[in-house]
């Protein structure tokens, strides 16, 4: 039995006769009246166990979207059920909590006549990636007086996968336009030893004389040039470092969140270019993997694999990571390492093993830069700010030195702020493809 707010008001109303008519039995009589009212109300209330509860829920939702958890209440009893139902989702609060979802309007009042159904909907607002697990559904049936109720909590399973937001999607149209230019569908000439022959056309002013096909020119008796298109069916391996360095917060999110956005944009772009895309999330063991060679399935596969990836407070096993890459790649490929350019982490692990990758593959390292570091370097109005600027300057120099050492070993280094990392990495991919280096 559960007491309602109306029962509390009835009990407080008993204070009036106690004050006006002081008598030894007044309190006891009024308490007895309240108990009798509650007992009668509970006896007349429908049993909550006579309500069959079913849930309907989408399987996934993007981080920036909303999802509806719909509960269907079917009354199998003989009395009309005056129901207060609570659909619990951790933490069952408005957006901004620490759990994967915030629930709007988790409590609903509805009357369910005998033999009929009623539906109630709880709007879920995701606040982070991951799997959100529904809590128990609490059903409370009130009596006709509304002073007491019967209550039960039921297990109605529900799981909602919160996918990455993919906010970098806005950069995709412009990069696809550039990709079409490289692919020869626009009037742009592509040069590079690594491109594939496409067709012949008549020479026009401005064409590179090195592209003239002299045999075709002799046959046609007019100057003919070769056109080229970027190579297809290359292998692109996206490697996300999920070690402790990925847990560092840059602005309002972790480094891993920016890496996830960059991986999604590059994966979709490479799939449109006809390349095979594979994803590997790794620190000391494989945290997630996605392989899908069909372009229409790349984004769902990557998003589903990245949905549950979280930083782990361990050091990266770089030799193990290199072994994982070698096991998955049998020919030359583009290996994109989404990790930190932290000098200590790179010098103690990556520099010793990266040569084994660059000898066989084109390697790109993409790292998130902290814009607050630049602010510290430029603010020098007070003594404290001068010391902060000196420390920030030293950190910048150390990161630059590490970048130089990586480039000397054949690694392309891309460092940008969280908002710029995804488009910068996509531009690097297009530049490598245009230069025939994939």
UniProtKB/TrEMBL annotation:
Stretch list, region Disordered: 89-114
InterPro entries linked to this entry: DUF58
Membrane-spanning ranges: 7-23
Pfam families xrefs: DUF58
Organism superkingdom: Bacteria
Keyword match DNA repair: no
Swiss-Prot/TrEMBL keywords: Membrane, Transmembrane, Transmembrane helix
Residue ranges of domain DUF58 in the record: 200-405
PANTHER family reported in the protein's UniProt record: BLL2464 PROTEIN (PTHR33608), SLR2013 PROTEIN (PTHR33608:SF3)
Listed name of the protein: DUF58 domain-containing protein
